[in-house]
Amino acid sequence: MEFNIQTRMKGPLSLGLVLILSIAATANSLYAQTDSQVDAYTSNLPFVMPKLQLPDLPNRRVSIADCGAVGNGYTMNTEAIAEAIHRCSAAGGGIVAIPPGMWLTGPIKLESNIELHLDSGAVVLFSKRFEDFPMFARPKSGVKCIPMIYGSGLENIAVTGKGIFDGNGQYWRPVKKEKMTERQWKELVASGGAVTPDGKMWWPSKEAMDGQEYIKNLRKQNKKPAPERYAGAREFLRPVMLALDDCKRILVDGPTFANAPGWTLVPTRCEDIVMRNVTVNNPWWGQNTDGLDINSCRNMLLYNSVISAGDDAICLKPAKPNDAHASDPSCENIVVADCIVYHGHGGFVVGSETYGGARNISVKNCSFIGTDVGLRFKSSQGRGGVVEKVYVDGIRMIDIADEAILFDMFYDNSADIESGDGRVPEFRDFTISNIVCDGASDAIFIRGLADMPIKEIRFENLSIEADKSCFIENAEGIVVDGMHVSIKKGPVWTINNAHDIQLTKISCGQPADVYVRVSGEHSGNIVVEKTSLSAASHDIEMDKDVPSDAVRVK
């Protein structure tokens, strides 16, 4: 339904018009509130953040129910939702409302100047029929399964409200046996599907299990097959839940995105993005169910959101940049604040593809509970670029399975190490401060490349309880100023081929075997200052190839 407020104003104000004006005023106040919060989060940063531009949308409202949608859980509403979006867009844009109900649908294509709004009590349930998600050529990304919600080249778009998007991911995802109990595995296998010959992974169908080989053979015949040729791999190519390519002025505020088939929220080469009050709820064992993948985006704010994922939770992927910014880092001016991650391979992650470069990243006041890694910075030869000016402040972690803080430039080198294309990862100029971790396998792990060390990483005010302490290899300019560490085994510091290392005001919660163990002929200028080495049975151990003056204690 559409309203022409100017025409209705000629007569007395009706109750309907008063309600319309009230809705308009409420919408304006909500956007004003968002604008005020955005300004607060993007000021007083260690870098200059451009003012984010929020969507500017008309106060027009079209309900999908008025376009024939039925929220009974079994009626397909793909066409009715598309009609509501088209009708609203043709009139100049506005709100497409999804009222309370269970709305079964296929893909939803967004248009410019549209706010897709889920009322409280609305559940959008995506179809479990594979044929409802055809193949299409995604710009610059090759042939993919069509996303569940998508748009390309749009401006002024929003997805809001307190409703739920459910991706019916159990019909798409494979499951690793190691992630299930024996009973769960038996029940899963008994439900149907197919199991790999080694018995380690279950797939929903044999077509899904064989999909990767199908694509490999298809590309042998034709390097660029038409999208329809990929139909045989549809069940393998799982759809992204929300994919926005080359869009501007985006707001995602309020919804829950649950049970994704694969990656959940994927903005790519987008600008001026605000995501807030968002919940991502995927099973921890859900294969490749990343929470938020920020692909080559600029000027973005994420805050006050909760994510539980089966892969990386909040992840920057600086790959191919937007054409308009080809000479700039592909990820720039990104702010993450006041978020909680309950499960994920990493709480906050950069990589593994970093060849587009990243700069001006702020992560502040977040909590990671039960993630595999806390702060995870990863890349490799062939995937790398310059990642710099990253500021992390105020992170709490509990029950981290692996490293609390990880820098690793040897992530999955099998496909890329021989590429020789010059994409060498260069990570430098990080400041990581005010970190508390109660339980991890390793406190800090830093491993650069021999010909491109990790550089200029500053840690301030850390408190970490872990099984093992700190490992540094192929790095230079590492400063740790204020750290309390409690470990169960091994040296406090293990350093290999690293130099210009400054360790200041370090305390140990319990005695260690060795304080500093140094190896590698390129190690040197390691300074330990304002620290008692008596917390360890042995203070310094150095291999024969290490220069005798490599370590100095002040």
CATH superfamily of the domain at 14-169 and 241-255 and 270-280: Single-stranded right-handed beta-helix, Pectin lyase-like
Taking all residues together, what is the mean pLDDT? 91
Percent helix, as a range, is: 10-25%
- Taking pLDDT < 50 over at least 5 consecutive residues as the criterion, the unreliable ranges are 1-26, 414-420
- How far the N terminus sits from the C terminus, by CA atoms, comes to 76 Å
Any guess at the CATH architecture of the domain at 14-169 and 241-255 and 270-280? 3 Solenoid
Number of strands: 43
Tell me what you see in this structure.
The protein has 554 residues and is mostly beta strands. It has a domain at 14-169 and 241-255 and 270-280: Single-stranded right-handed beta-helix, Pectin lyase-like (Pectate Lyase C-like), CATH 2.160.20.10. Helices cover 12% and strands 44% of the residues. The protein contains 6 helices and 43 strands. The chain has a 24-stranded parallel sheet that branches. A 14-stranded parallel sheet has the order 5-10-16-19-22-25-28-30-32-34-36-38-40-42. It has a 3-stranded antiparallel sheet with strand order 13-15-14. Strand 8 and strand 9 form a beta hairpin. The protein is globular, with a radius of gyration of 26 Å.
Could you list some keywords that capture this structure?
about 550 residues; mainly beta; Pectate Lyase C-like; 24-stranded parallel sheet; 14-stranded parallel sheet; 6 helices; 43 strands; disordered N terminus
